[in-house]
Amino acid sequence: MNEKRPIKKCRESLVIQTHVIFPNQLNNHGTLFGGELMSMLDVAASIAVTRHARTQSVTASTDSVDFLHPIQRNDAITIETYVSGVGSSSVEVFCKGIGENLLTGEQYLAVTAFLTFVAFNEDKSKAIVPMIEPETEEEHFVCSGFEERKKNRFIKREFNKQFARKITLTNSWMDED
Fold first, then answer.
1. 1 in a structural domain
2. What gap in Å lies between CA 168 and CA 158, rounded to an integer?
3. What Rg, from alpha-carbon coordinates, does the chain have?
4. Which pTM value belongs to this model?
5. Residue 177 domain-assigned?
6. Does 63 reside within a domain?
7. What CATH number did the domain enclosing 78 receive?
8. How distant, in Å, are the alpha carbons of 91, 92, 168, 177 from that of 146?
9. Structural domain of 55
């Protein structure tokens, strides 16, 4: 017998984190290093998944990260994440980063991203996650594209499997005597 899956609102998974950018986080252009930002996105997104599913999860893919505006030293970045789509055990999370010049108050959209996670039960089996219900105009817009993004993820995953079969495990930097 199929049990009806519960439905949760996007806002129930909402995570908001604000970080100030310090010199040790900068790249050679003097702006926030992309890897630092990606780490912030992954952490916030994983919390959103746990809030939604109330179980453990792992990052399955970083589907897209669009760096839209550089984040300067001493600026702040506010990361907002929420669940934007679900499969049976997969959870897609939408992430946005709003930069702010703390001295002037100017704000800008710095990054958008989609990450996908797989939720697991304590016994390591895949968890069945609640459905999602958008409320705001932004949530409706973001969630409305979920099925198309899911289809594209599947196509990309199949391509990547084929691609990986052609990649050798030979270490080119090692002597083959």
1. no
2. 18
3. 19
4. 0.90
5. no
6. yes
7. 3.10.129.10
8. 10, 8, 34, 51
9. 7-165
